[in-house]
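To whoever is on call:

I kicked off a structure prediction for a single chain this morning and the downstream step that reads the tokens threw a length-mismatch warning. I double-checked the sequence; it's 118 residues and nothing unusual in it as far as I can see. Pasting both halves so you can look.
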Amino acid sequence: MHAEITIVPATPALACAWFGGPPPFTLRGCVAVRDERPVAIFGVYWLDGVAIAFSEWQPGLDRRTIARCFRRGERLLKDVPGTMYAEPHPGQQATLLARLGFVAVEDEVDGGPLLVRA
């Protein structure tokens, strides 16, 4: 049986553990942790002044944990003013992001949909 998963604010150490080194961007987010190791990360980063929501998780992570991450992340996103973009996690249905107010735009990024929340 798996150890319990807790969702905590993203710290530099947890972000480094997830990305395998310093993250490629400054972020605000939360991390799902099992046995002191990150199994998912959700948050927002800024690229050239534009807010971009992101989520990543290990393959096979249960839907309940993913939903818990999204609910926690939703609180973070509410504090971000203005327009925000999002790229769904590979294999992620855009319906989760739609619940957070994102809608698809015609552009694509890396072969996947680009979403926006105004």
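Update from on-call: the warning came from a stale cache, not from the record. Cleared it. Sanity check on the structure: The longest strand covers residues 37-47.
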